Amino acid sequence: MVPLPLALLLALGPATIALAEPLRFVDCGSIDGSIQEVNVSPCPTQPCLLHKGTSYSINVTFASKIESQGSKARVYGEMLHVDIPFPIPEPDGCKSGIQCPIQKGHSYSYLNKLPVKTEYPSIKLIVKWELVDDQDQMLFCWKIPVQITS
């Protein structure tokens, strides 16, 4: 007999996995790393519908091509080919699931949150997410289309 909490977890597992389908993304200049997978949850279809007042989970699996003591995330909303900085709660990659120092040839799971503030306009745009190393080179850079909605 399966214990009840485990049975619930097993029952909920497929639904949870369905919310975190790997996204189609555009690599926008990953130099010092290679992206293996990008997940935004919940985002079952693209463009991702981002509801104001909600926070979204970001999970990027990537392999590093270099060694680096640390990393820093930069997020932008790209509109009409202009990058507008988008604040995130934790820009330090070493506090976002990555064990630092980063080692060459190792894979990492970068985890963060994307909060969508209620004061943001309802608009279609491109989210551009960068993670840079100590030399300000791209460990990864990816873009996905989103639509901010009420």
Automatic annotation (TrEMBL):
Residues 25-146 form the MD-2-related lipid-recognition domain. GO terms for cellular component: extracellular region. SUPFAM superfamilies: E set domains (SSF81296). InterPro entries: Ig_E-set, ML_dom, ML_Npc2-like, NPC2-like. It is found in: Secreted. The keyword Membrane does not apply. Gene3D superfamilies: 2.60.40.770. Belongs to the NPC2 family. This is NPC intracellular cholesterol transporter 2.
